[in-house]
Structures are given as structure tokens and as C-alpha cells.
Amino acid sequence: MTTSPTPPTHPVLTAIEARVLGTLMEKARTVPDSYPLSLNSLVLGCNQKTTRDPLMELEDAQVATAVANLRELGLVHETTGGRTTKFSHNFQRGMNVFEQSAVLLGMLMLRGPQTAGELRLNTERWYRFADISSVEGFLDELLERSPEKGGPLVVKLPRLSGTREQRWAHLLCGPVDVNELESVRALHTPGGLAERVERLEQELVQLRQVVQKLCAELGVSPDALAALD
């Protein structure tokens, strides 16, 4: 199932462009002394193994192409001077959103769908929301954004089985495929494929140990048993 809001009039980004933009937005707030970012620093930020979902392994050329596209959209600025070209974002003005809304969208681009409570916690280094109701207020505003302003920028996802709160996702890369999100989640949650594979591997190790013990008691080698098959 894919969410199908009114077709947007705002720019539709690729996953790499969203990662680049989210990374610039993060570093502007968390490491201002190192901002704007060089291409090398931007690539490292995009490929971080923490606070990123999904994880990416982007090459310099991919990030450079994304930056060039974002510059054309007016969402990234290039700073020249000295030896290194550096880049900064222009998201809030380019997308015509409030600061708080930009913070929430940036976090959704970096870490995927989240509940309002998770967003409040995860954005604490970027902006301190007074409470969850404040977060929900800005999310609702982004959800109800008029066509004249480019249409909705977030969507509220169906509640997952066994959960109490609904998650929010951004629409900057177009409609959200809920089925795909569920498949990815199944790989990383208890009872998912990843856990089942790990459990099977542990059982296989235990079976091998039992076979080796039996072979030792019988005075035969495991290779001899295999030859009987």
C-alpha cells in the first residue's frame, strides 16, 4: 500500500538528495564550528553509522551530483573562497516552512518514520520542543499544508500491530510505500527475519556440537558419517 496524497507541487527529492540535505541541516546545528561542509565532510556525514536510517555507502560523485541538483532547486548554497568549496543548506527558506517544521523534516529525512515522542527526543540537539503536543502541532500543520504552498510535506502512517502511537514520515521523496517500510521493519524487529536467521545459526552450532560428541563416543569421525549419506 502506498500513501496517495494530493500530487505535490514542491520539489520531489531522491533518497540521496534527502540524505545530503538532512546531513547539512544536522551539522549546521550540532557542529556549527565545522559548518558549512566540504564535500568530503558531507560524504562522511551522509555515511554515518549512527543516527541514520537507512545506512548508506555513498561515493563522492553521488553526493556531488545530489548537491548540484539541490543547488538548482535553491535548497543548497555553495561557498567559494580559499582552497575548498563548501556547502550549506537553504531548506527553511527554500521550502517556506517554519524553523520547527524544518527541524522535524530534517530528522525524518535522516532517521526515517518516527512517532511524535521519538521526534521530540531525537531533535533535542537541534531544537527543544516544549512538549509532544508542540511537535504534533507542527506535524499537523505540515500534513494540512495547502496546495498553494506545495501540498502536504508529511503523512501519518497506519498504526503498527502491537504499537500505541502512529509514526510520521516525510513526503519530500514522494508518496510513502507502507508495505516496503513494513518489510524493512520486519528485518530489524524481534521475530523478524534477522532474528530468525540468527536463531537458526545458533541451533546449527549446537547440532554440530551434539554430532561431534556422539561421534567421539562411537569412535567415528564426522567425515565418516557424511560418507554414508
Which key features would you list for this structure?
single chain; 229 residues; mainly alpha; Arc Repressor Mutant, subunit A; 2 domains; 3-stranded antiparallel sheet; two-stranded antiparallel ribbon; 5 strands
* Secondary-structure arrangement, i.e. CATH architecture of the largest domain: Orthogonal Bundle
Task: For the record, give the distance between the C-alpha atoms at the N and C termini, rounded to a whole number.
Answer: 47 Å
Return the average pLDDT rounded to an integer: 87
The radius of gyration over CA amounts to 24 Å
Widest sheet: strand ordering: 1-3-2
Model regions low in confidence, pLDDT < 50 over at least 5 residues: none
Count of distinct strands: 5
Count of separate structural domains: 2
Helix percent band: 40-55%
Largest sheet: 3 strands, antiparallel
State the CATH class of the largest domain.
Mainly Alpha
Question: Total number of helical segments?
Answer: 10
Summarize the helix and strand pattern as letters. Answer: HEHHEEHHHHEEHHH
Strand content: 5-15%
Per CATH, the superfamily of the largest domain is: Winged helix-like DNA-binding domain superfamily/Winged helix DNA-binding domain
Judging from the principal axes of the Cα atoms, what is the shape? Answer: extended
- The class by helix and strand makeup works out as mainly alpha
Kindly identify the CATH topology of the largest domain: Arc Repressor Mutant, subunit A
